[in-house]
Amino acid sequence: MEYSTDEVLEVAFDAGYILLESGAEIFRVEETMQRISRYFGVDDAHKDFFVLANGLFATGITDRGHFARVRQSRVQGARLSRVVAINQLSRRIEQGQYTLPEVKRELERIRSIPEPPALLQILAAGFGSGAFCLMFGGGWTDAAASFLAGLLLYVFVVFVSAPHMSKISGNLLGGAIVTLASVALWSAGIGRSMSHIIIGGIIPLVPGLAFTNGIRDIADGDYISGAVRLLDALLVFLCIAVGVGAVFTVYRHITGGVPL
Amino acid sequence: MVRFLAAAVGTVAFALIFDVPYRYYFLCALIGGAGFWATEALMGLGLTATEATFIATLLVALSSRICAVWRRCPVTVFLVSGIIPLVPGAGVYWTAYYLVMGDTSEALTRGFAALRAAIAIVLGIVLVLEIPNRLFHWSRKRP
Question: What are the pLDDT digits (tens) for B13-41?
Fold first, then answer.
């Protein structure tokens, strides 16, 4: 069955956009768009895709004239389950298991895969903090304090910073909140090493996906996108450090020193 | 052993935050735990932190690629979660700590150590990603 170039490119574009939004590497976005359009009969001479970390461009030559779409994408949180789902979809398309309308429906379904529930994310951040505190050499009481600091941090991330704040202020405040919570817990006698409590607590803010994807994009030769992602990761690191440092500065003026 | 388990649990926590599908958690945990354990073991053998991080990254990236081929899913799933225990999060903290304490030289030492670890991770990932894809398909039945 023959499809119009418009229809095919529209679907390829949507698949690419979901991937980009969910934290896929640039080459995967490009490759998936190419595969879908090729399989449904749009050859390379009739289309062009250009993918950046924060935008998607597609043009094509159709029977009726031209196809052109541009869409901006904000660098958001990781949604790897969508990347996995589209990866499987594109493999099955190539095996001939889908017609174009079915692909459309499937993409609609993938787009609506829900995030892990907020409560689960918060718990995960808590356990992650506690575990990393132990890993970096903290004791069990330190880990317990880290767990609490991580929980508090992610309550802030899920309900305040992710929906309402910029990356910079979100991570600055996140670092500060963890430090404040750790100082409070430590002063209340929970945990022995304040540094280990804080290190565990700030770990959920670490920009692992931006960092890894940035490296991968640069390795693939997608320098602009890789640079954008690495800059994003570097900025987040700096913001965390400044958030921690700011609270320390105040604490030092009040008490005359910061315990290890 | 406790710290290996801690690294594994921490990796799974991150996998959840990254919205990795549940069925991959166990492999993520193994890779993350192994990466951290390798760093510790190598430093115990007398390697510097940077060298140990580099070799551990090679291990994490290689096993991520093998698992990705085996389970037919994007390598990102394993790589992103597995690399987290190696990321110098503690280094960032110590840099901020010593800066505030006014100990600039110690802050620089810690900051550069974190930077070196980051570069080691970059090199490790890039090297493994350059290995051609077909070398990873020897174990897979051709369709």
Answer: 999 989 999 899 999 999 999 999 999 99
Number of domains in chain B: 1
Q: What percent of chain A has pLDDT over 70?
A: 97
Does some domain include residue B107? yes
Touching check for A259 and chain B: CB below 8 Å? no
Find, in chain B, the residue whose alpha carbon is nearest to that of A133.
B6
Which of B18, B94, B122 comes nearest A78 by C-beta? Answer: B18
Interior/surface letters A84-105, b for 16+ CB within 10 angstroms, e for the rest:
bbbbebbeebeeeebebeebbe
Name the β-bridge partners of A49: A58
- pLDDT tens-place string over residues A31-60: 999 999 999 988 888 889 999 988 999 999
B52 in any annotated domain: yes
Return the SS3 of B101. coil
| CB-CB neighbors (< 8 A) of A86 in chain B | none
* Residue B54 within any structural domain of the chain: yes
From its phi and psi, is residue A65 left (phi > 0), alpha (psi between -120 and 50) or beta?
A: left
Q: Domain for residue B17, yes or no?
A: yes
Domain containing B69: what range? 2-136
Please list every residue in chain B whose beta carbon sits closer than 8 Å to the beta carbon of residue A25: 76
ipTM of the complex: 0.86
Q: Which residues of B touch A23 (CB under 8 A)?
A: 18, 76
**Cα Rg of chain A, angstroms:** 23
Partners of residue B130 in chain A, C-beta under 8 Å: 219
pLDDT tens for each residue of A231-240: 999 999 999 9
| Distance to chain A for B122, nearest Cα, Å | 6
